[in-house]
UniProtKB/TrEMBL annotation:
Cellular component annotations (GO), alphabetically ordered: membrane
Alphabetized UniProt keyword annotations: Kinase, Phosphoprotein, Transferase, Two-component regulatory system
Molecular function terms, GO-annotated: phosphorelay sensor kinase activity; protein dimerization activity
SMART domains in UniProt: REC (SM00448)
Coiled coil: none
Protein name as annotated: Response regulator
Domain of life of the native organism: Bacteria
TM annotation in the entry: none
UniProt keyword annotation of tRNA-binding present: no
Modified residues (4-aspartylphosphate): D83
Residue span, Response regulatory domain: 33-152
Region: Disordered, residue numbers: 1-29, 383-412
Length: 412
């Protein structure tokens, strides 16, 4: 605005005018720090007086050039007031500089455009570019409420952004913890399975040999019958141990993911009497190319958990497990014709099966999609694979090299 030019004024901290007590702000008694971009000293003084008359305590500094404005932005401020017509630039230019300092989105400091001549198009552009408000100099009665509102909004935005950052950190840590727990559980399962194989399995197999020797050399028919009954009991114990060990650590993955899923679906159908069909892409039953470490185990556990849910909850009569590799993405779909899942089923407070699948999939960069309706449920695991030629060679089931022994025990 036109007026007697004056250099930047020192910080001004004036009390509110008598009869207009300063508006109380809970928890914050300090004055607002106001950076005023204004080339007219009288207009600056008028704006500060209007703020004080409105009950707002301020500590203000006036600057009028681009260089002074940029230098002043290095200091902490609560709000920026700006004229539109300035020496060599405009209020919109100043708003752009503030936004560039603040990064993407709205500026960190609330920016209020205060001018004697501003058109509607300019005002709309300023608001679109991130200005908190705009006022005409002939209507400064609204300046104090505008400053209060803008500062409060900026504080709320900063608090929300800080809360969002903390929430994101918390989510990331929770996800990392869940992934660590999944890894720890698999490691513990592997250790228990190895002990069952080495200790329990070896002892039961040796005992079976001894009982069979006793049966063959016993002359008393009653003793032979008792030995035969003991052999059946030991055989049942060996089979149970094999099943437990297979559930703990699927050694069949040594034969490949396709073979492991074929075995799983056949055992599921045999054990529960529910028709279970296994399909591969385009009917190809060959093993897919070498998969990144961890992917076969994640796919196996996902199918295992999905089939467990089918057996417990779906009341289905048919299940289809479909494995495909298309466009560099491994997909495993388990679908059934059961009663489907309702929102109440998914919202159970202590239902961690599906949630665990999401976390397990994330350990290999994958995700799980679940759809359900009256005609059944479909669970799809999708895992983007390493580009061709960069996949690690060798074992692909994330097992230890020393754990390659055959887990099947001798059955006489």
């Amino acid at each position: 605005m036109n007026g007697t030019p004056a250099g930047p004024s020192p910080d001004t901290d004036a009390p509110a005018i008598a009869g207009s007590p300063a508006r109380a702000r809970p928890g914050d008694t300090r004055p607002y720090r106001v950076l005023h971009l204004e080339d007219s000293e009288p207009d600056h003084a008028l704006a500060i007086a209007c703020l004080q008359r409105g009950g707002t305590r301020v500590q203000a500094r006036r600057v009028e050039t681009r260089a002074e404005f940029l230098a002043a932005l290095d200091e902490p401020w609560d709000v920026v007031l700006s004229d539109y017509h300035l020496p060599g630039f405009t209020g919109l230019d100043a708003l752009q500089m503030l936004c560039e300092r603040s990064g993407p989105g709205a500026p960190a400091l609330p920016f209020i455009l205060v001018s004697g001549q501003i058109g509607e198009d300019t005002a709309v552009e300023a608001m679109r570019n991130g200005a908190a408000d705009y006022l005409l100099k002939n209507n400064l009665a609204r300046l104090a409420p505008a400053v209060e509102h803008a500062v409060a909004g900026a504080r709320m935005r900063r608090a929300r952004e800080a809360a969002d950052r903390e929430l994101e950190v918390s989510r990331r840590r929770l996800s990392e913890l869940a992934q660590h727990l999944q890894t720890s559980v698999e490691a513990e399962r592997q250790a228990i399975a190895r002990e069952i194989h080495d200790d329990v399995g070896g002892s039961l197999t040796a005992l079976k040999f001894e009982l069979d020797w006793i049966r063959r050399h016993a002359e008393n028919p009653a003793m032979q019958q008792r030995a035969l009954a003991a052999l059946e009991t030991v055989t049942h114990a060996i089979e149970s141990s094999q099943r437990i060990m297979q559930n703990l650590r699927p050694a069949i993955l040594e034969q490949g993911l396709v073979a492991a899923l074929q075995w799983m679906t056949s055992q599921f159908e045999k054990r529960l009497g529910i028709e279970c069909e296994f399909r591969t892409h385009a009917g190809d039953t060959r093993e897919p190319p070498a998969l990144p470490p961890g992917v076969p185990l994640v796919a196996y556990r996902t199918a295992q958990e999905a089939l467990t849910n089918v057996s417990k909850h779906s009341q289905a009569s048919r299940v289809v497990v479909d494995l495909s590799l298309t466009g560099g993405v491994l997909s495993l779909e388990v679908s059934d014709n059961g009663r489907g899942l309702g929102q109440a089923d998914l919202a159970k407070a202590r239902s961690f099966g599906i949630r665990g699948l999401h976390e397990r999939a994330s350990t290999v960069g994958g995700w799980v999609d679940l759809s359900s309706g009256p005609t059944g449920t479909s669970l799809i695991l999708s895992v983007p694979l390493t580009p061709p030629g960069t996949a690690p060679a060798g074992r692909s089931d994330n097992t230890d090299p020393d754990d390659a022994e055959n887990s099947a025990w001798t059955v006489l």
